[in-house]
Design goal:
With 60 residues, this protein is an all-beta fold. The protein has strands spanning 13-15, 25-31, 34-39, 43-48, 55-57. Helices cover 0% and strands 42% of the residues. Strand 2 (25-31) and strand 3 (34-39) form a beta hairpin. It is globular. The termini are far apart.
């Protein structure tokens, strides 16, 4: 895994670049290139980080 996906850890906040309506998400896990995120308006989603570059949020 490379890019920003490699730094995503549980507890970090992210946004989905193509789904702004999902709201802010909190990373639950990052295992084998699959990141589980709990989004405000979309619930828990598993994102394949090689297909979607989640955007880290450092200030909400």
């Amino acid at each position: 895994m490379s890019g920003l996906g490699a730094i995503l850890e549980p507890g970090m906040l992210v946004r989905h670049p193509d789904r702004p309506d999902w709201g802010l998400g909190q990373v639950q896990s990052n295992i084998g290139g699959k990141v589980t995120v709990n989004f405000e308006h979309a619930g828990k989603r598993v994102i394949e980080i090689s297909r979607v570059e989640l955007i880290p949020v450092f200030d909400s």
